């Protein structure tokens, strides 16, 4: 899922028809389709919950998820799947969104759980997790990026549209990595609850950011960032 030349074993190149054979093998490794990645931040949730199971969506959060689901459905796209964080607030957001997208399969993963991806630069005074958290969460969130954010498989014939419901830190880090920006700057981005971030990955590997944290489909009194 990287540069096609990196997927071909050059040692096996035929000496007589080397260039011709190489070109043929490269064609079989080249992506043909475009991937559209929709990164959704979970809706507002109960901040007083001590355990994850207690951090359920607030009534406003449920309204936000309904608005996000309605917005995604109104795009008229054929979504392939919804991959979501296994944390309660992301799972509940997914359940509400999926009502607006009947038939789209849902997949839960621990890779997209919230965490501390990398120490921010410049540092901030109001958020200082233990150093070990960057090592534990950072490796997992980087694995999520590598696993989910890549060009289409060479066998994929049509463009795909995928939804990922997860968390602000995860989305901000993924955006920085996908655009080849310094990932340490992730904390400079801000995302509203229930917002939509749209990444496009072309067959040649080029990535474009269509929208970042869009909540223009919500009434102003429904918008939060908690």
UniProtKB/TrEMBL annotation:
Cross-referenced SUPFAM superfamilies: Phosphoglycerate mutase-like
Broad class of enzyme this protein falls into: hydrolase
EC code: 3.1.3.16
Domain of life: Eukaryota
SMART domains xref list: PGAM
Pfam families on file: His_Phos_1 (PF00300)
Residue stretches in coiled coil: none
Record keywords, A-Z: Hydrolase, Membrane, Mitochondrion, Mitochondrion outer membrane, Necrosis
Any one GO molecular function term: protein serine/threonine phosphatase activity
InterPro entries listed in its UniProt record: His_Pase_superF_clade-1, His_PPase_superfam, Mito_Ser/Thr_phosphatase
Reactions performed catalytically: O-phospho-L-seryl-[protein] + H2O = L-seryl-[protein] + phosphate; O-phospho-L-threonyl-[protein] + H2O = L-threonyl-[protein] + phosphate
Subcellular location, record wording: Mitochondrion outer membrane
Keyword Mitochondrion: yes
Identification of the protein by name: Serine/threonine-protein phosphatase PGAM5, mitochondrial
Originating species: Dicaeum eximium
